[in-house]
Design brief:
Blueprint (H helix, E strand, L loop, with lengths): L4 E10 L2 E7 L8 E2 L2 E3 L6 H13 L2 E15 L4 E14 L10 E8 L9 H8 L10
Parallel strand pairs: 1-6
Antiparallel strand pairs: 1-2, 1-4, 2-3, 2-7, 5-6
């Protein structure tokens, strides 16, 4: 039986901006997304977030907090993910494209000025009214 996979999207914040990469290769090609990937067996969400950011961007993150989740059905591609978002801050390192077959480039964007098109999980996150810069009430 087919089941949804678990994705982890990492919102990395630095100087009031968030880090997004332009996707290459797999589903969502040409759209902008946060660093992230698949949660591996016996891995914590925080461990996954740190690992994926290191593997994809070459930087370290700190102050990780669990964020919201989205239910993402990619009809055309026949894929279904539940995406867990982690909010973090940039700690150290130089942003670079570590997986050129998967990502064209990384850029920092203001939350109110995100590029288009956005990857489906981010579009679904925005539909929830999420803003990582808004204090929780």
């Amino acid at each position: 039986m087919e089941r949804p996979r678990i994705g982890v999207g990492v919102i990395v914040i630095k100087d009031g901006k968030v880090l997004l990469g332009k996707r290459r290769g797999s589903h969502g090609k040409g759209s902008w997304c946060f660093p992230g990937g698949h949660l591996e067996f016996n891995e914590s969400v925080e461990e996954c977030a740190r690992r994926e950011v290191r593997e994809e961007v070459g930087i370290e993150i700190k102050n990780l907090k669990m964020g919201p989740f989205t239910n993402d059905i990619f009809k055309k591609e026949g894929k279904h993910y539940v995406t867990l978002f982690v909010i973090s801050e940039y700690k150290s390192g130089e942003v670079r494209v570590m997986e050129p077959d998967k990502c064209e480039r990384w850029e920092w964007f203001e939350w109110k000025k995100l590029p288009k098109p956005l990857f489906l999980p981010i579009r679904n996150l925005l539909k929830q009214g999420f803003d990582p810069f808004k204090p929780k009430t």
